[in-house]
């Protein structure tokens, strides 16, 4: 395949931005890497956090963000045997890991201290051509459209992993906080496919309509509820509260409320990463009700295979809107205003 020397990309040249839409060199793959011609890339709230330097983790600058890239392999290193030129591939948040630490040896690669993170410590997928370590790239099934697959590569895998970590079983109830966003819209569907009942928590009529279209049994609008805790409890069949809570919110308050409406022996899974936020829970309540509070990060390679398989079987449909790569600054503005229902997927210029 013909590979150009230059490509279009959205580049943050300093922490806090702004983004600069410009041409940069096309990278060349190392021995264990693939070069993917990105066709589509989802936009995640993490991408905005990365550009703004919100987290206590050093971020690469200048930076090409993005970590939900779906496209075609156009070149590969001499040590790559699992991909061929022309294969469909996805590049995820976990771009690579050392492969030899305790965590990597136990398939906990996301916890590797030397992990390479797409769109954070290495350049990501808001460009026409992007690199990834072949062992961490995902093979995208032929029957899955690349634009629809993009959000699954981070949002889908992340919430699927969170539901597994929660240990919630078929017939039980999960409260999904931030249910109307990119992660939440997928979390609802994975939960439903697993036979889990959903209470969707978010704000606004557009998100209500989307959640109800996805089949949620109850939508609790935090902007209109006079007693959110009581409303979530009332939405569970026996009124005892949710068996698990999946926290996808981008503000701190929902993280403090969750212990009030999760049932005894329930599990709270923190996934969202609001800047400078803290988890707080009353010790007495947590102990005597045996509440489990834990964090869930991105999935490992097997989680990725499973999450994509749900999609390939038609059990998951990610609500998304297509926009050109040049529109990324506008999408960040909408994201900051909380006005995005579902996910935006960027289409790369040809």
Describe the overall structure.
With 350 residues, this protein is an alpha/beta fold. It is built from 11 helices and 18 strands. It has helices at residues 45-52, 102-105, 146-149, 155-166, 182-193, 205-213, 228-234, 253-261, 283-288, 301-312, 328-336, and strands at 6-12, 19-25, 33-43, 63-64, 69-76, 88-91, 94-96, 116-117, 129-133, 138-139, 173-177, 197-202, 218-221, 242-247, 262-270, 292-295, 320-324, 343-347. The strands form 4 sheets. Strands 3, 5, 6, 9, 10, 17 and 18 form a 7-stranded mixed beta sheet that branches. Strands 13-12-11-14-15-16 form a 6-stranded parallel beta sheet, with helices on both faces. A 3-stranded antiparallel beta sheet has the order 2-1-4, with no helix packed on it. Strand 17 (320-324), helix 11 and strand 18 form a beta-alpha-beta unit.
Short account of what is shown:
With 350 residues, the protein is an alpha/beta fold.
């Amino acid at each position: 395949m013909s590979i150009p020397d230059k490509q279009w990309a959205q580049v943050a040249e300093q922490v806090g931005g702004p983004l600069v839409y410009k041409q940069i060199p096309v990278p060349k793959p190392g021995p264990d890497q693939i070069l993917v011609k990105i066709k589509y890339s989802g936009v995640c709230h993490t991408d905005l956090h990365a550009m703004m330097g919100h987290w206590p983790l050093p971020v690469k600058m200048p930076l090409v963000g993005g970590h939900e890239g779906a496209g075609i392999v156009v070149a590969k290193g001499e040590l790559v045997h699992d991909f061929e030129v022309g294969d469909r591939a996805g590049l995820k948040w976990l771009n690579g890991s050392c492969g030899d630490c305790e965590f990597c040896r136990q398939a906990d690669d996301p916890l590797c201290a030397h992990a390479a993170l797409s769109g954070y410590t290495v350049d990501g997928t808001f460009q026409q051509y992007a690199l990834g370590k072949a062992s961490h790239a995902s093979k995208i099934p032929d029957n899955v459209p690349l634009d629809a697959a993009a959000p699954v590569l981070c949002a889908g895998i992340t919430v699927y992993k969170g539901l597994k970590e929660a240990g919630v079983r078929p017939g039980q109830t999960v409260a999904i906080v931030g249910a109307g966003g990119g992660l939440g819209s997928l979390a609802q569907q994975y939960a439903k496919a697993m036979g889990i009942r959903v209470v969707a928590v978010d704000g606004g009529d557009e998100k209500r309509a989307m959640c109800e279209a996805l089949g949620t049994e109850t939508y609790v609008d935090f902007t209109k509820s006079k007693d959110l805790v009581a409303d979530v409890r009332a939405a569970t069949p026996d009124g005892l509260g949710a068996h698990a809570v999946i926290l996808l919110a981008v503000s701190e308050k929902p993280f403090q409320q969750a212990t009030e409406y999760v049932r005894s022996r329930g599990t709270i899974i923190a996934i969202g990463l609001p800047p400078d936020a803290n988890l707080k829970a009353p010790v007495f309540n947590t102990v005597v009700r045996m509440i489990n509070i834990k964090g869930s990060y991105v999935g490992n390679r097997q989680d990725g295979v499973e999450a994509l398989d749900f999609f390939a079987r038609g059990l998951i449909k990610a609500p998304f809107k297509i926009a050109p790569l040049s529109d990324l600054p506008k999408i960040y503005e909408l994201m900051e205003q909380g006005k995005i229902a579902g996910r935006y997927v960027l289409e790369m210029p040809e």
